[in-house]
Amino acid sequence: MTVNIQTVLDDINQDVRNQFDTFEGKVADYIPALSRMPADRFAMAVYGVDGTFCHTGDAHQRFTIQSVSKVLTLTLALQRYGDSLWDRVGKEPSGTAFNSLTQLEFEGGKPRNPFINAGAIVTCDALYSRLSAPTHHMLETLRSLSNNPRLTINAIVARSEFEHRHRNAAMAHLMKSFGNFENDVEDVLRAYFSFCAIEMCTTELARAFSYLANKGEAVADGQHVLSSKQNSQLNSLLFTSGLYDASGDFAYRVGMPGKSGVGGAILAVVPGRFTVAVWSPKLNRYGNSSAGIYALEQFADRLNLHLF
Ligand code: GLN
User: Fold this and answer.
1) In CATH, which of 3.40.50.2300, 3.40.710.10, 3.40.50.261, 3.90.230.10 is domain 5-303?
2) Confidence (pTM)
3) Given this model, what pLDDT does residue 30 score?
């Protein structure tokens, strides 16, 4: 099994590098500190529920995880609130951009799902009410799950995001005006941006989120992260909403639950088999890594992993 997957990953790496220029889009620049990342980078890592571990390309290159952090934010909130979290955030695909404000006003300040910015920010607010040091807790959890006690937050990116926070701040204030926000907006945004600015590489990402493929338990040490039922539910939401208004296209092409981030990472799950992390910073118009989606599609095709 290991040999096969490694060969497939190395083929994909070569294939992607041969056609870097053809991928749609550009590196995110609405957060100025992100725009410094070169576009021609690619990495992919696979972590199996049997402990299989393979990687290819720039697999140890660090990047900020951005919206992939929303998976852990939701995980930590579900641990504390269970289903009552859904009073504050929905479970439906949004069909709008990750940072859109329009729907939020029409729908009374309740975001469509926890993976668009408004949904993640309100989930972060919920966490903020239950944790004395949410950023510390988030970082420590990722350190433990990825087995790297040295993970850090990129302070330059976090600051850059805070300085350019206006759209995210508008969402938070709008939710507050509807009574769906408990804490100080700026405090919660600082925590949210810190979560987004945690730096990881693909090998750490694949390992940290292994519980998603393993009924809620971390593969390496059996750590119980979510109940099996909650884990299934989280995967369902990733499948329907993890790539914003391009979730349908991702489901069609790749056929796996997934979560993208504007740093260029995508985390995908093959339930019962493995987690796959891919990274390439050039983003398409939906804010998802173009080469990343292509690579995952190739991976799904070559190993027949499409869920349906
Ligand atoms: N930190 C980013 C933001 O709030 C996260 C967005 C993303 O990765 N899609 O805009």
Assistant:
1) 3.40.710.10
2) 0.97
3) 87
Residue 2 has pLDDT above 50, yes or no: no
Spatial distance between the Cα atoms of 243 and 261, rounded to a whole number of angstroms? 9
What residues flank ligand 1, with Cβ below 6 Å? 66-67, 98-99, 117, 161, 168, 196, 261-262, 287
Closest CA to 121 of 64, 174, 173, 188: 188
Query: Where exactly are the structural domains of the chain?
Result: 5-303
- The 10s digit of each residue's pLDDT in 149-173 is 999 999 999 999 999 999 999 999 9
| Type and span of the H or E element at 207 | helix 202-208
How many other C-beta atoms are found inside a 10 Å radius of the C-beta of residue 102? Answer: 9
- Over residues 54-67, mean pLDDT: 96
Mean pLDDT, rounded, for 104-116: 97
70 has catalytic annotation? yes
- The b-or-e profile of 81-93 (16+ CB within 10 A means b, else e) is beeebeebbbeeb
